[in-house]
């Protein structure tokens, strides 16, 4: 079930804060604990805090640490990007969001503010972030200072950007519109949006758009002479008091901000008197320019007034100050209670989110991104710590992966090999590995060597194995590591960086054996593509499976998908789609498909089907329009090892996909095989897969 919503825009000052405040109020009426998260915040001075986070946490009394409410400042984000660490950005955002998801009933996520340069990059980050968090979005766009055509274009652009990345859009809000255009905006959005997406339009509320005296003081670096307690006064309009008082009084409007040189006592006193007069509108404050302040006698007069407004002294001249006031963009602060209440009441008047929230809480996310998948693997491995043996303990890649695994304390590790050689290699590689936390065993000198050899002899004596042969085999790290699993001294094994597949799995086939009802050991790769995770099987073990074996491989692969949180849509691949193809190879795939349908009618499966029809929605619908799998397949079963192995390597090399695996399936205990060309990442990921497999055995 979904536990989050992402509020996104494609521009600054869109009124996104209104949606955040209003939606937070609505969510707190529906569920007990709501968290708040901003992946990216604007840069703040050292020792200061982000204003908007403080406003949300303070006003709604959210009992969550400030540091948990964001992932990166804008400068940190740009620095990571320039260092080529975009993956680290997403990983950190996912980790921090998932922590909140674990602690709260629901999490409101607010996208970035688009301040400064790099707005296109920020928008891309928002789209990618929403996709990787797996949560739907509400898109807000502003109509202020735009032509009708510009505004409508931005609506379409924002919507298309999220949809193209397979992000669900729940609603669109056209904000800061002219009152007379509200219905037209909703009508236009309705024309290009699917029916299930809600549309709302909100007018420009001038009182929310204008800054408070507090914001003006900050922007002008002003000195407060009077009225500290009224700095949250909202400005309506502003005007320069340069004319005769009798003429200036006629220009005053409600909540006017008076800007005048500091030596114009007549304007100052006249404006203050007008403020308390029932015949004139109230003013919000007075800005005194030129670094001038009233004479002591005037100050004394002001001090004796029954009512006062903020009076601010600034150094700059009237012209510059007036221009700067006009350029100030209003924000909402934690102590701007009146402004917050106005914002929420405006939201509630124009946006009916109660039905949307019901949909939101029951929303089922679809699909899974590579980053989500990898994060999920780590979290699942941490749930129940397992012990994994790595027989190739002197291989550099194994040692580097072991160091990473030990650093995050995700599994217990045993390395096999000469202890002194392994420790020297650790020093040579400069790895920060605490060898007290990683077990190192030299099989020949192990205290369990004779017991293991005796056990192997008992298991294989009916095959002509004697004790001398058993001892000889037990000096082999693959046999020793597999025996550790058999005897319960380890939960799983990962090998193959320096050994063949046959060398790795032969001991497992001899005495770990296959699960009841399983006759074929097979494998799958988790292919982490740019925007999805696909599962490929079998690309490592069985050269030419029969129809029955292919069906068994398919069922085992589907079970592996379920075990790792993937709802399988199975494509039985061939050179032909549907009933058109003829020949032994396509007939074998067709037969295997029927066997799976008979044995597991609950599985979504299509076959035979070509690769493009399986993964491309346009091709799939054109070739097989009635299929629930065509164009959407995420479990691809290859007809033979030649096709599967070459395809996975081609996809990996040509697209830059991360291939996690192969993960062997069908054994009683997890033993997994690495490619001899594996990377440190391959070792790291395969160990995590193995640990998760062990949790279910």
UniProtKB/TrEMBL annotation:
GO molecular function, one term: phosphate acetyltransferase activity
Principal cellular location given in the protein's record: cytoplasm
Gene3D superfamilies hit by this protein: 3.40.50.10950, HprK N-terminal domain-like, Isocitrate/Isopropylmalate dehydrogenase-like, P-loop containing nucleotide triphosphate hydrolases
Residues annotated as domain Phosphate acetyl/butaryl transferase: 373-691
Domain of life: Bacteria
CDD domains the record matches: DTBS (cd03109)
E.C. no: 2.3.1.8
Keyword Cytoplasm: yes
Keyword Secreted: no
Recorded catalytic activity of this chain's protein: acetyl-CoA + phosphate = acetyl phosphate + CoA
Enzyme class: transferase
Domain spans labelled DRTGG: 215-325
Keywords, sorted A to Z: Acyltransferase, Cytoplasm, Transferase
UniProt subcellular location: Cytoplasm
SUPFAM superfamilies named in the record: HprK N-terminal domain-like, Isocitrate/Isopropylmalate dehydrogenase-like, P-loop containing nucleoside triphosphate hydrolases
Domain notes for this protein: The N-terminal region seems to be important for proper quaternary structure. The C-terminal region contains the substrate-binding site.
Similarity section: In the N-terminal section; belongs to the CobB/CobQ family. In the C-terminal section; belongs to the phosphate acetyltransferase and butyryltransferase family.
Summary of the function given for this chain in its UniProt record: Involved in acetate metabolism.
Subunit structure: Homohexamer.
Protein name from the UniProt record: Phosphate acetyltransferase
């Amino acid at each position: 079930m979904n536990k989050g919503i992402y509020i996104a825009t494609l521009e600054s000052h869109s009124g996104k804060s209104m949606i955040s405040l209003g939606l937070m109020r609505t969510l707190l009426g529906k569920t007990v604990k709501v968290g708040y998260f901003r992946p990216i915040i604007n840069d703040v001075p050292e020792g200061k805090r982000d204003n908007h986070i403080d406003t949300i946490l303070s006003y709604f009394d959210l009992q969550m640490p400030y540091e948990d409410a964001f992932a990166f400042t804008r400068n940190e984000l740009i620095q990571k990007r320039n260092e080529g660490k975009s993956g680290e950005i997403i990983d950190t955002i996912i980790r921090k969001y998932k922590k909140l998801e674990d602690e709260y009933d629901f999490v409101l996520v607010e996208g970035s503010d688009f301040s400064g340069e790099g707005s296109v990059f920020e928008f891309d980050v928002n789209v990618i972030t929403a996709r990787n968090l797996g949560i739907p979005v509400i898109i807000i766009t502003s109509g202020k200072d735009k032509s009708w055509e510009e505004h409508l274009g931005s609506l379409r652009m924002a919507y298309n950007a999220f949809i193209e990345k397979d992000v669900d859009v729940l609603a669109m809000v056209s904000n800061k519109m002219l009152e007379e255009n509200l219905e037209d905006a909703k009508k236009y959005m309705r024309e290009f949006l699917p029916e299930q997406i809600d549309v709302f339009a909100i007018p420009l509320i001038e009182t929310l758009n204008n800054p408070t005296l507090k914001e003006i003081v900050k922007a002008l670096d002003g000195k407060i002479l009077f009225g500290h307690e009224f700095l949250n006064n909202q400005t309506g309009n502003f005007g320069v008091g340069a004319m005769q008082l009798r003429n200036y009084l006629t220009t005053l409007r409600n909540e006017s901000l008076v800007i005048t040189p500091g030596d114009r006592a007549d304007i100052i006193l006249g404006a203050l008197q007008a403020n308390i007069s029932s015949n004139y509108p109230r003013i919000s404050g007075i800005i005194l320019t030129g670094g001038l302040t009233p004479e002591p006698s005037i100050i004394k007069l002001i001090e004796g007034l029954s009512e006062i407004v903020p009076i601010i002294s600034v150094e700059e001249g009237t012209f510059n100050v007036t221009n700067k006031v006009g350029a100030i963009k209003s924000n909402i602060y934690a102590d701007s209670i009146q402004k917050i209440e106005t914002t929420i009441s405006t939201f509630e008047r124009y946006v009916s989110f109660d039905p949307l929230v019901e949909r939101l809480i029951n929303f089922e996310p679809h699909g899974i991104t590579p980053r989500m998948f990898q994060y999920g693997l780590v979290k699942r491995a941490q749930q129940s710590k397992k012990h994994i043996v790595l027989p190739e303990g002197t291989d550099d890649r194994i040692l580097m992966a072991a160091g990473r695994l030990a650093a995050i304390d995700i599994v217990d590790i045993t390395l096999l090999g000469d202890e002194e050689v392994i420790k020297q290699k650790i020093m040579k590689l400069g790895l920060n590995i605490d060898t007290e936390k990683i077990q190192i065993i030299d099989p020949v000198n192990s205290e369990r060597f004779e017991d293991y050899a005796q056990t192997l002899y008992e298991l294989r004596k009916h095959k002509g194995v004697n004790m001398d042969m058993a001892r000889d085999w037990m000096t082999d790290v693959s046999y020793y590591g597999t025996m550790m699993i058999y005897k319960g001294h380890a939960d799983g094994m990962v090998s193959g960086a320096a050994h063949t597949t046959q060398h790795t799995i032969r001991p497992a086939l001899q005495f770990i054996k296959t699960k009841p009802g399983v006759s074929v050991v097979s494998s799958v790769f988790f292919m982490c593509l740019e925007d999805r995770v696909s599962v490929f099987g079998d690309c490592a073990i069985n050269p030419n499976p029969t129809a029955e074996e292919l069906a068994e491989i398919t069922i085992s692969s589907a079970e592996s998908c379920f075990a790792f949180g993937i709802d399988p849509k199975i494509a039985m691949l061939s050179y032909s789609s549907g009933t058109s193809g003829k020949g032994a190879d396509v007939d074998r795939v067709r037969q295997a498909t029927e066997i799976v349908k008979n044995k597991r009618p609950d599985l979504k499966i299509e076959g035979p089907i070509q690769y493009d029809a399986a993964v491309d929605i346009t091709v799939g619908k054109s070739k097989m329009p009635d299929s629930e799998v065509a164009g959407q397949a995420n479990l691809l079963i290859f007809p033979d090892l030649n096709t599967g192995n070459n395809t996975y390597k081609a996809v990996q090399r040509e697209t830059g996909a991360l291939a996690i695996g192969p993960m062997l399936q069908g054994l009683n205990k997890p033993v997994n095989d690495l490619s001899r060309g594996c990377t440190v990442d391959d070792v790291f990921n395969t160990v995590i897969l193995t640990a998760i497999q062990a949790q279910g055995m």
